[in-house]
Design goal:
The protein is an alpha/beta fold and 231 residues long. It has helices at residues 2-11, 42-51, 58-68, 83-96, 108-122, 138-146, 156-165, 167-174, 190-205, 224-229; strands at 31-34, 55-57, 73-76, 101-104, 129-131, 151-154, 178-181, 211-215. Helix 3 runs parallel beside helix 4 (83-96), helix 7 packs across helix 8 and helix 7 (156-165) packs across helix 9 (190-205).
Length: 231
């Protein structure tokens, strides 16, 4: 507190003083079970441990159980507290069992930034992961159509174009079991209305859509899931 005393002394020269001091303490989330305690594929356990995670946070474990139970879930947590792993671990385990997920990021750049992170967990598991956006070469698109990936990474603009122009892209969405929308706090105003319209269009041919949302704490509320996805 010596620095505050010094500042106060200097402020007296201007007939002023510090009116309020706010101290923010950042704490890690509450810890949950060890990775070895999870009811997941043994190869995935080894991959997670090699990735450097030995223990889940409690909120990650709660999300894992709900996603595996096919409940619609909104994950809200601070930056650097493992939101991505909270949904990646269960959807990868579901992928090993043959279920498919569409993972949606707001932009192409963000999606491609996350690709290496996902590959680091699935590279030894024999899973098919693909990214489908405006920069995806035609040869890779044909591969994705021919062999639909366990995890398809895309963005709202690609979904908008694909739904309108490609029956094969529509098939990738129609046959998906889970939809994960990351960084949903950015979807506000027109962008949010656009996303809701896309989800409603997907729901026309995929009635039992299972949705997982992930958001930073900034601008996030508990109503986001219903506002954006109607669930």
């Amino acid at each position: 507190m010596e620095i505050l005393d010094e500042i106060n002394e200097r402020l007296k020269l201007f007939n002023a003083e510090i009116a309020h001091v706010y101290t923010e303490t950042a704490l890690d989330p509450e810890l949950g079970p060890d990775i070895n305690e999870l009811d997941i594929d043994e190869k995935l356990k080894r991959a997670i441990l090699q990735y450097g995670i030995k223990k889940l946070y409690k909120y990650q474990y709660d999300a894992y159980k709900k996603i595996k139970n096919r409940e619609n879930v909104l994950i809200i947590s601070g930056t650097g507290t493992g939101k991505t792993e909270a949904f990646l671990i269960p959807i990868i385990d579901l992928a090993i069992k043959g279920e498919r997920t569409v993972l949606v990021y707001p932009t192409k750049a963000l999606a491609r930034d996350q690709l290496n992170r996902i590959y680091s967990l699935v590279k030894e598991l024999g899973l098919n992961v693909g990214i489908f956006d405006g920069d995806t070469p035609e040869k890779e698109r044909e591969r994705l159509y021919r062999d639909p990936p366990h995890i398809l990474i895309t963005n709202p603009d690609m979904i908008h174009i694909g739904l309108a122009l490609s029956e094969r892209f529509k098939f990738l969405l129609r046959t998906a079991d889970h939809f994960v929308f990351d960084e949903i706090h950015v979807y506000e105003g027109v962008l949010g209305s656009h996303l809701r319209n896309l989800v409603d269009r997907i729901r026309e041919f995929n009635k039992e859509i299972h949705i997982v949302g992930s958001s930073a704490t900034i601008k996030a509320t508990k109503y986001l899931l219903e506002e954006l996805f109607g669930v």
